[in-house]
Design a protein that fits this description.
19 helices, 2 domains, 405 residues, Rossmann fold, 52% helix, alpha/beta, six-stranded parallel β-sheet
């Protein structure tokens, strides 16, 4: 039987430390203010997004009900495009597949991937003698801080510019001023060399269109484009909950995601359906031209199928990870991503932590941290009833229910 009392004590102890950290308070306050202003302007400029979100809710409901079928369709279409597709039932299966592709002693560059955090991919690859660099600015900062990401879209939102300057000064061995533009340029100079040395590029996927076998990746920095296009092999680790029926559905999900994350339009929208190829000689298609020679797509289940069949909690699989709910959550505003598991945060993230990433016992403390105030529901584009899901999860925790796979 899980020792929930000890889990609670350990979790709440860490939460209290976070809530009393003045540095964290400064970073969070600045980030929340900026997000509110940006999202308000975005939704005012594109009011149709609110109605589009209702349509996306229906797309995600349909996708959950057709999970096995959509995985099969996506696999077939990606393979017909020239990609190599692998199905991983568990996190261990995914890591074994990636080990078989990567081996040891390699250099890898990684775009931001929640699924990678879920399976602790970077740590695993490094333990096998590989050199792995996070290329998202926020993820890179967190890698240097030896911390998990603290938000889906803004991994280091709690870190002030002053703290970043101190971190970079120590890492690079030269004085870096607490100026955001200077800090970004310094990181850029370091990472650009890594892209061209890398043997492999890693990514996740915001959404996948089953009918075309297309991975949609949203970004502003250009690091995803570099990580997935410059190295000779691209590996995409994607949860099966990201698959939707059609390309049109995928674009709708992507649009709602970036709008509710506070962006009118992302600087880059990547659509990847295959490794690079050309038919310029005698109109004969050959894979491996300017971009990657190989594309490996690993679809990870890791409890998602079981969760999608749950009559109550399956709603958690609708989450598009825009992160808006977190920035309006009173607990998150005090503690950042310390209110959450290794890779998923807040109310909906508690369900994912219990059934996908960390297990029921590890999620117990998170579940009882939720104020169930409902602010997350008001902010959620898909109106996911996180307080209701939390109530159900608490009931199951009290019954000492174990996750069924």
């Amino acid at each position: 039987m899980p020792d929930h009392k000890k889990v609670f004590q350990d979790y709440y102890s860490g939460l209290l430390v976070s809530a009393c950290d003045p540095k964290l308070e400064i970073g969070l306050a600045r980030s929340v203010k900026a997000y509110r202003e940006r999202r308000s302007k975005t939704l005012k400029r594109f009011p149709k997004t609110i109605e589009l979100a209702k349509e996306v809710r229906l797309i995600k409901e349909e996708s959950a009900n057709r999970r096995e079928e959509l995985v099969k369709i996506a696999k077939e279409n990606l393979e017909s495009n020239g990609a190599k597709v692998h199905l991983a039932k568990t996190a261990d299966d995914a890591l074994k597949i990636i080990d078989g592709i990567v081996g040891t002693g390699k250099v890898l560059v990684s775009a931001k991937t929640l699924t990678g955090e879920e399976v602790e991919l970077r740590e695993h690859l490094e333990s096998r003698g590989n050199e792995v660099w996070e290329t998202d600015i926020g993820q890179f900062i967190q890698q240097l801080r030896k911390e998990k990401p603290m938000h889906y879209v803004l991994p280091s939102l709690h870190v002030s510019r002053e703290e970043v300057a101190g971190l970079l000064t120590k890492f690079f061995g030269k004085e870096i001023e607490p100026d955001i533009a200077t800090e970004v340029r310094t990181i850029r100079e370091f990472l650009r060399e890594k892209y061209f040395k890398a043997d492999f590029g890693l990514s996740g996927g915001n959404v996948v269109a089953a009918d075309t076998g297309t991975i949609v990746l949203i970004e502003n920095e250009g690091n995803i484009r570099m990580s997935t296009n410059v190295p000779p092999v691209h590996i995409a680790l994607i949860g099966i909950d990201k698959i939707v029926p059609t390309f049109e559905d995928a674009i709708k999900v992507a649009e709602v995601t970036w709008r509710y994350a506070g962006f009118a339009i992302p600087f880059y929208l990547n659509l990847i359906s295959a490794p690079s190829g050309t038919a310029d000689i005698e109109n004969t298609l050959v894979y491996g031209s300017s971009g990657p020679l190989e594309l490996h797509v690993i679809f990870l289940d890791n409890g998602r199928s079981a969760l999608a069949k749950d009559p109550v909690l399956k709603e958690a699989t609708y989450c598009i990870k825009c992160g808006g709910c977190l920035l309006e959550c009173p607990v998150f505003q005090l503690t950042a991503g310390n209110y959450g598991g290794r890779s998923y945060f807040g109310g909906v993230g508690t369900i994912l932590s219990a059934y996908v990433a960390d297990g029921m016992s590890a999620a117990a403390g998170i579940a009882y941290s939720c104020a169930r105030c409902g602010r997350c529901v008001e902010e959620c584009p898909l109106s996911i009833d996180a307080p209701g899901l939390i109530a159900e999860l608490r009931h199951r925790i009290l019954k000492n229910e174990q996750v069924k796979t």
